[in-house]
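Predict structure. Input: Bilin-binding protein, 198 residues.
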Amino acid sequence: MFRFLVISFLAFASAEVIVDGPCPEVKALESFKFPEFQGTWYEIAKFPNVGEDGNKGKCSTAEYTVNGDKGTVRNSQVVNGVKSYVDGELTLVGPGRVMITYKFEGFTKNSVLTVVDTDYNNYAIGYSCKFLEKDNKHQVFSWILSRNKSLGDSQAKVNAFLDNFPAIDKSNYVYNDFSENTCKFTSSRAITSIRRKN
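Output follows.
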């Protein structure tokens, strides 16, 4: 997924999803079971963001390890034959809300992943929002995740949920590519710094 939440605070002018007004009140999954969320998730679709190189990042995954209300995540993706990854620290800050902390050279970045729906074994839908106070707008980020490289039978459940969740416009999703050729890489690197918005 994800350099994924690093990231939600950066700009990608040609693709970012910007909506008028402040961030809406979004209901998280109240019955969220953090330990059951651990393991590997494949990023089936995302709202484009610069942290995943816009639309370039492919074969994106997130590997969660959970211990109580804490944990770690490794987000990875492949771009042009290079696999990049970033490690983050997790803190459960409320039902269905996970703070992700990334430490880079010279600064730390926090963002909150709101899990709005999941069955733990097949799919999950994540949401994040950044208020752009100066312009009185908000930037929306969302991800569709799966335990497999495709949603399969879970696609209908995901569509039904999104059809009744106005904070997420599913027409903004860009779908990932997990084909064998796309996922090949010849080198890997850790992400230790990112470009910050001026």
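The first strand starts at residue 17 and ends at 20.
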